[in-house]
Amino acid sequence: xxxxVVALIAERRxxxxxxxxxxxxxxxxxxxRVELVVPNGDRPFELSATAxxxxxxxxxxxxLAGLGxxxxxxxxxxxxxxxxxxxxxxxxxxxxHAILQRYDVPLPRTWFATHxxxxxxxxxxxxPIVVKPHDGDGAQGLVLLSRPDDVDLVPVSAGRSEAxxxxxxxxxxxxxxDGWDLKLYGIGRDVWAVRKPSPxxxxxPGPARFQATDxxxxxxxxxxxxxxxxxxxxxxxxxxxxxDVGVTREGPYVIEVNDFPTYSAVPEAGEAIARxxxxxxxxxxxxxxxxxxxxxxxxxxxx
Length: 303
Known about the structure:
single chain, 303 residues, D-amino Acid Aminotransferase, Chain A, domain 1, 2 domains, five-stranded antiparallel sheet
């Protein structure tokens, strides 16, 4: 047993995730002590001026207390995977979309507004579109609009009340797909492509219907998809990431990028997460000892 402490900050609903469980086992097999932190609403967390006794921390989930723990640890000098800044970027879909445009990633046309009624102003030939909260969790809150007047189908719970929440809405060009999702999963420099049945079904204009699915399978990764996956991860500053891709007749479109995905059907994903995390920790230790500039001179290839 070495003295390395790895913090896994994970919501209770994710504790059964195979990649997360296998990563925990891989850390322990490598001799690390794993501190599992499960944030919940009835536990107070003290803000301290002293960093926790963690060597590195990973976060899986959207719980604000958990993300606060990660941000506080990072601010006090604990390396994190992913960084709070990168997580915040991809969870703000407006910012994520803007960054991906900068890197010429193929994207569906996208608009945003503080109230869904604003999309009524879009020309009719821009429809159908899909409306969703800018910080939505997975596929929650998706609504299909086939014409401007369908804006009335956006549920009241999504912000159409008399006192709406402070929220932004995204509207994206609807992509006609074949009922299958393509996911690109990344860990460091490695990318996998996984095909799975889509859990999202639109029976017509209105909120999406969700269905249970299984049958995720690893599929070949060509050079174009590899470049797309790596570009999305690097552009967003992520070490662990997933890319939702819509494959159309015109080619692939990136729908969104997420931090720390499920890694469905990716072989030995947990072990890969652990290896990459420990390599990052070693990098931080080395750079902390000799400085980033000097390290760059040491590893730079000779002219």
